[in-house]
Amino acid sequence: MSNKPVICVAIDGPAASGKSTVARGAAKKLNFNYVDSGSFYRGLTWKCLRDGIEISNHEAVLALLATAQWDLSLCDGQVVYSIDGDQPGEQLKSKPVQERVSEIAAIPEVRAFIVEKLRETAMFGSLVMEGRDIGTVVFPDTPHKFYLDADPEERARRRFKELEKSGAYDDAQQVLTSLQKRDQKDSTRKTAPLQIALGAKVIDSTSMDAAAVIELVIKQVTSAQP
To answer: What class does CATH assign to 8-219?
Structure first.
């Protein structure tokens, strides 16, 4: 067991702002583990949809949450999980999951449960975690906080390109409409709304490529180390 202190790098921002690419790239270069916090919420959404649980029925969702067995593991530098022995995999990117995850994420008891699971990922070592409340709620005491943003149209273009092969959306305009609805829900929910963490470095990546943003993150993280 290493005696090195665990470092947590928080990368927050709205959907399709480049968080995943930047977090993965920074984690790889820093030799940290990568954690996609959104996948935990999408995983629960997938589980509800697969088991026929109506997401608007919060009591049913919480009953499922109370009995489901979550197991965390490390795979190729990324913290992954299974629910009742099953890994959702590519189903996390499906349109039904994408369209309903905001409803799951707005349930306070769900957020409390997932936050604890996310904090548990630190048992595997230093990490770069992306999400919407990492710097404000999950790891509020970390000095390494970043908030990525980009113009909505650019974010829609990026997400459409990412999902084009899946056939989930016909064009970028559909994605833009979906993102705007997601932004509205994320920024106005009562529990842990999307906001810029105190002390976070804000990066507008609209006209920046991923490599430039990754280098910016790494430079700030390494320069802060003793």
So the answer is: alpha beta
The two three-digit tokens of residue 201, written as one number: 């470095």
Read off the pLDDT of residues 193-217 as tens digits, 9 standing for 90 and up: 778 999 999 999 888 999 999 999 9
**DSSP assignment, residue 143?**
S
Nearest to 172 by CA among 191, 155, 187: 155
* DSSP-assigned letter for residue 164: G
Across all residues in the chain, what is the average pLDDT? 89
pTM of the model as a whole: 0.86
Q: Are 136 and 191 in contact (CB under 8 A)?
A: no
Position 24 pLDDT exceeds 90: yes
Q: Write the CB contacts of 23 (distance below 8 Å, at least 6 apart in sequence).
A: 9, 11, 34, 35, 36, 128, 129, 130
Query: What is the C-alpha separation between 83 and 96, in angstroms, rounded?
Result: 18
CB 60 within 8 A of CB 53: yes
CA nearest neighbour of 182 among 51, 41, 34, 46:
41
The three state secondary structure string of 73-139 is EEECCEEEEEECCECCHHHHHCHHHHHHHHHHHCCHHHHHHHHHHHHHHHHHCCEEEEECCHHHHHC
